[in-house]
Amino acid sequence: MPFRLPLNFLCVLLTLALANCQPSSPANAPTVLLQPTRPYTTQNVVLVVIDGVRYSESWGDTTLANIPNMGRVLAPQGVFHPQFYNKGVTLTNPGHVALTTGHYQRLSNNGSEEPDYPSVFHYYRQHTGAPATSAWVITSKDKLEILARTKSKELAANFAPAVDAGINGLGSGYRDDSTTLRVAQQIFRQHKPRLALINLRGPDSEAHAGNWDGYLRAIRETDQMVHTLWQWLQRQPYYQNTTTLLVTNDHGRHLGKRYDEHGDNCEGCRHISLLVLGPDVHKGKLATTPRSQVDVAATIAELLGVPVPKRDGEPMLELFK
Predict the structure, then answer these.
(1) Residue 96 to residue 115: CA distance in whole angstroms
(2) Residue among 110, 98, 105, 100 at smallest CA distance from 45
C-alpha cells in the first residue's frame, strides 16, 4: 500500500508554501534603529524654529542687516548651514513635524491632523524614563500643539512631552513671541527640561498680513530673541556649557513680491537656514553637506544618546568636533 501523508500535515505544508510565496509586508519588517555613535558633552537641546523667514531677508543678505546677532555674534561660535532645505510641504505644521519626527508628512496645516509617527521628544522620554516636564513644546502658534501628539500605535506614543501652545492650547489663538520667550524661561527655571522646542511666529504673521516693514522688523526681533535666549541659557548653571541650540525655520516664502504667501516648491519656500551652537559643535564653521529638515530629529537623538527608528533623515555628524 503506498505511503500517504496525513491530510492535516499536507494542509500545514500548503499554508507554509503559500506564506513563503507572499511578499514581505513593510509593517512586519524589522525596525532599523539609528544608534548614537559616541558620547557628547551636550546634556540639553533647545530647538528654536523662526516661522516663515525667507533666506533672502536673513542669511542670504550679505549685509546681515536683519540678523546681526545671529550672523555676526553667534555664527562665529558655532556652525552655520547655507544649504539647508525644507524638502516636504512648505507649510507650518508639516515643516515642524518634519523637524521633530524626521519624516516628511503631508498633513493639514490647521492643527486638525496629528503626526503619523512619534517625535524625538516621545523617544527621548521613552528611552530615559524621564517625566513629561523634561521635554517641552513651547509655541506661539496654538495649532502646533499637535507636535506633542501622534496617531502612531508605537509604545513611544505613550510618552508625550509637555506642551504650552498659543494663548491656551489648540483653538485658543496665537500669542506674541515675547510672551512665548518669557514662558520658555519660566519653564526652564521651574522644570529644567533636557529637550525643548520654541516656535516664534512673528515673521510669518507679518508677511501674511502683507506688511513688508513689519516682516523685516519681526525678523530683527526674533534675531534679538535668539541672542537673548542663548545668553540667558549660558548664565543658568543647569544649562551653561552643556546645551546645544539649533535655530532653523519651518519654511520660507514665495520669491519676489509674493512674499506674503508660501507653500509650493519654489526656491524661496524651500531654502531655509540652520545655525547650531553648543559644546560639541565646531566653532566658526560653514557646513558644506546639503541637509534638510528631517536630519534635525536624528541629530537631536544623536546628541542626547537616544536610539530612534530610521525615518527620512540621519544625524548631521559633520557638525560636531
Answers:
(1) 10
(2) 100
Residue 84's pLDDT is: 98
For residue 30, what pLDDT is reported?
A: 60
Write down the domain spans for the chain.
33-319
Summarised one tens digit per residue, pLDDT across range 272-298 is 999 999 999 999 999 999 999 999 999
User: CA-to-CA distance for 101 and 105, rounded, in angstroms?
Assistant: 9
Please choose, from the candidates 68, 67, 42, 43, the residue with its C-alpha nearest in 3D space to the C-alpha of residue 54: 67
Reading the block at residue 59, the C-alpha cell is 542669511
CA distance 274 to 293: 9
Tell me if 301 sits within 8 A of 123, measured CB to CB. Answer: yes
What grid cell was written down for 155? 509604545
Identify the sign of the CA torsion 119, 120, 121, 122: positive
One-letter amino acid of 281: V
CB–CB of 243/46 below 8 Å? Answer: yes
- Whether 274 contacts 81, CB under 8 Å: yes
Phi-psi region of 299 (alpha: psi -120 to 50; beta: other; left: phi over 0): alpha
- Can you name the residues that pair with 285 across neighbouring β-strands? 79
CATH architecture assignment, domain 33-319: 3-Layer(aba) Sandwich (3.40)
Given a contact cutoff of 8 angstroms between Cβ atoms, the answer to whether 297 and 120 are in contact is yes
Could you tell me whether strands 271-277 and 243-248 are parallel, antiparallel, or unpaired per DSSP bridges?
antiparallel
- In this prediction, residue 278 carries a pLDDT of 98
Q: Among the listed ranges 1-5, 287-291, 301-305, which one has the minimum average pLDDT value?
A: 1-5
Given a contact cutoff of 8 angstroms between Cβ atoms, the answer to whether 132 and 160 are in contact is yes
101: left (phi over 0), alpha (psi -120 to 50) or beta: alpha
Average pLDDT, the chain: 92
